[in-house]
Fold:
Amino acid sequence: MADYKYEEKEKYDGTKVKVLSDTFEPGPTEVKKEKIAWRGRLMDRGWKMRYLQSAERYWFSNSWYGSEKRKNPA
Amino acid sequence: MAEARPVSVDEATLEAYEKAKADGVETVFDRAARIKPCPIGAAGSCCKNCGMGPCRVPAPKNREETPEEKAKRTGVCGATAETIAARNFARMVAAGASAHSDHARGVALTFLEAAKGKLKDFTVKDEQKLYQLAMDLDIEIEDKETQQVAIEVGKKCVAEFGKQEGEGLFIKRAPLKRQEIWRNLDIVPRGVDREIVEMMHRTHIGVDQDYENILMHAARTSLADGWGGSMISTELQDVMFGTPEPVAGKVNLGILKKDEVNIIIHGHEPLLPEMMVIASQEPEMLKYAESKGAKGINLGGLCCSANEVLMRHGIPVAGNFLQQELAITTGAVELMTVDVQCQMESLYQVSTCYHTKLITTDRRAKIEGAQHIQFDEENGLQVARDILKMAIDNFAKRDQSKVVIPDQTQEMVVGFSHETINYLLGGMFRASYRPLNDNIINGRIRGVAGVVGCNNARVQHNANFLAMIKELIKNDVIVLTTGCSSMAAGEAGLMTPEAALEFAGDGLRSVCEAVGIPPVLHMGSCVDNSRILMAATAMVKDGGLGDDISDLPAAGAAPEWMSEKAISIGEYFVASGVYTVFSATWPTTNSKAVTDYLFEKYEDSLKGMWGFEADPVKAAQMMIAHIDKKRKELGIDKARERILYDMEKRRELDAA
Structure:
């Protein structure tokens, strides 16, 4: 917390308030060398199947709405 | 006298080309200047399908032909200019489809053997993708062992190639309306091989002589590629090697290292490259390299083998198709392996000017003079180790005085598979294309463009890609790329999130900033164009943008195409409902009827059509005009007035 910077701004009624300033570091973001290995978070078959039924629901789930299964058919 | 146009817009390429010239090495750029394309063949007006020909049937230049002239424009067998142009085009589709699909067959056979436990070096790396595939193929998963599921998936995929009747199993992934269009036209592909063989039969002398009939089967053949061979290849490679996830990589000739053993993996298949990645990281191998005076082993890629290991491991890429000879002319490459597709025969000649060893690794693709080491799936890792050792042993022969490596490299973020886009936009608990669709509907993103394909030495290297892509993203069109197009975009720095700040229009930039993605997404190798089909289908299914791929504000392009594979890719995009614009050259210009059929009448049946425009910026504008047309048809071309409904208005609504 000690590293946070604050700046003084004026409130709508003219009183001065201290607000939190930028919390990001200046300059270009350092490119992370490691992968964003999101698929590794799905540990077992049950998780994987549940994810497929949710993420790829238009192919593998019966409970979804989209262009091909509308709440109010055209 | 006008100054000659530089051969490339890429500084590293120009620098390496100057070195090649200074070394007295002839490259593709020199040959393109020396050999002019045959104008009769280029227009599709030469038939060499029988021993009575070749018959040349060129149209008169710069004027309309008379009916009498038109009637005389036939081959010895009587085949008209229309039949000849359609046959030539269709054979290009068949050849392209066969290239992707023979690649896929090799992957499928390897996968099946691996599933049976016969290949110790290949395993199921992505179980989730295996289950996804099993469900697509109607395989019950239940409590079966993973290995059993893999065997059943492998058998079904292998059977897809020789299937004689019925429908390709991946067809049902497409939007329902699209499937209906294909069924009504009777162009749902059966087995991959069957469609390709039938295409070759139909275009034999004296068989199909109705150009419209030939071109509809060309569509069917291409679908056997896009929704068949290419898709099988992508999916099984994902199961064996992992579905791509975002990873940082580097591209351009500057990835070569002066003090390390440089090995280039070139071609299209990922089997050997995957083994090379593992072997190159083994401590024994690194020690061996050090014992020979090198500071390490530097693996780099070219063409689509590069895309495969870049997307999965972040292995750097030396360049695209037109940079393959130049990688060797740096003088810093100890060894180059080539497997199949897009590898120039001249590589051997170029390699003899330096110490580079050129190794062919596939029995289907040998090069006279090159050393052949057959890649053997049963001993994949050992073959990779043997090749690496050869490269390390060759390091001592490098003449450092001949080495000039261009400085240029560019960081990029890659790995945008359909699955990863879905995850990035929605998260783990509600992965979705909804944010993309919403931003298209609200107009921040104008549309989606797939810019893919090869380099062509007849146009300035990478120039068409960059001009087109920059025009598209400037106009808020998000760009999906594969193959050599990806490397062109990567080399120009368009595949970093920061590129959105510099090159994208305000709307696209705001979305890229919010999600943290580049305005140009790398989706993989040329077989991975099937990932673009899946992304388009996901957009349709998510809703709000019509019921079919042809309803989407989307277009495709290959502004520097040269291979038959590109024609097959373009054809399956058109047959899937996408307006697809090619630049560089067009192979049916000799027949107005055939060209009109591809450019206009295809839309009546397939709801997608071809286009051609040599100028890449004008081609981009044609794509944007098509996107705008689709936005208008969807009713999302204008911002709608937002009305805050009070209770009285709500009651009125309920009453109605």
User: Anything to note?
Assistant: The helical segments of chain A are 45-55, 57-60. Chain A touches chain B at residues 28-29, 31-33, 35-39, 41-42, 45, 48-49, 51-52, 54-56, 58-60, 65-68, 70 (CB under 8 Å).
